[in-house]
Amino acid sequence: MTYNGEDYIEDCLKSIITKSNVQIHVLDNNSTDGTIDIIKENYPSVYLTQSTENLGFGKANNVLLEFACQKEMDYVFLLNQDAYFIEDCLDNLLFSAQKLGDQIYSPIHLKNDKLTLDEGFSSYTFGGKQFNKLDFVNAAAWLIPISIIRRVGGFSPLFFHYGEDRDYANRVRFHGHHFSIIEDAKLVHNREKKRWVNNKENRIQFSNRFYINLLRYYTDINSGLITCVFVATKNTLGDFVTQLFAGKWRLGFRNFGMYFKCFPQFGTILEYRKRAKLANGVFLELP
């Protein structure tokens, strides 16, 4: 899936060098920059689907997940536009997956220097110390067996952008699977950590992410609803106190408002929790 990725897409696509039988599919979320032109001019073998609207991360990827299931492919590899493989990353992942069975696999995520662990990846793997039976790795690079997709389903429509991979990971765990890192597979996740500035734009973005996290707590089907409500409430109050003591009272009140924004969604959340427990490819249209 791409969206305004002209600064990244070339590094991403040219890194996909493999001896395996693969197809490269890109669904573009109505980019307004030169992303489409780069793909058409330089990568004619790529299967390109152009959306007339921005579907968001989950819904766009669901289109490709449905296609892969319909074509009875063995695996789907989700790759962010701002990530690119190092050497035989994809082949090493596929080779390991064929031996190890039904898990979701990910390579090691490195910064641009190709030596230092990506900060998010480092936190998910406890500083690079745990690579097996993980509850979560971000979806910048997931190799998913089709059998898991047919069981767990697609990404939830509750999440437009951000939070959908955490939600999916919760459902993967509910259905008895986990994430594993393949140590001889590496890629660069070409993203920069932005310095926090306490301005209105950043407060809005931070509060939107806070709201997404609240939805993720409520929809975690590994816990009962009462427990989920308790966790969401506890984290909201904790954040409110933290922001006030840090002098970020505007952000604190904005985040607290997001707690109440979730209430009208409870009917949808309850229906979601019921559907997400099914093992029949929920949120996808499968044959």
Layout of strands and helices, then pairs:
Blueprint: H1 9-14, E1 25-28, H2 35-42, E2 47-50, H3 56-70, E3 75-79, E4 83-86, H4 89-100, E5 104-110, H5 119-124, E6 141-145, H6 146-152, H7 164-174, E7 179-189, H8 200-218, H9 225-245, H10 249-261, H11 266-276
Parallel strand pairs: 1-2, 5-7
Antiparallel strand pairs: 3-6, 4-7
For the largest beta sheet, what order do the strands appear in spatially? 4-7-5
Overall number of strands: 7
CATH topology of the largest domain: Spore Coat Polysaccharide Biosynthesis Protein SpsA, Chain A
The CATH architecture of the largest domain can be named as Alpha-Beta Complex
Could you give the distance between the termini? 23 Å
- Shape from CA axes? globular
What's the CATH C level of the largest domain?
A: Alpha Beta
Helix content: 40-55%
The low-pLDDT segments are none
Beta percentage is: 5-15%
Instruction: Name the average pLDDT.
Output: 94
Helix and strand element order:
HEHEHEEHEHEHHEHHHH
The computed structural class is: alpha/beta
Radius of gyration: 19 Å
What can be said about the biggest beta sheet? 3 strands, mixed
- Structural domain tally: 2
Give the number of helices: 11
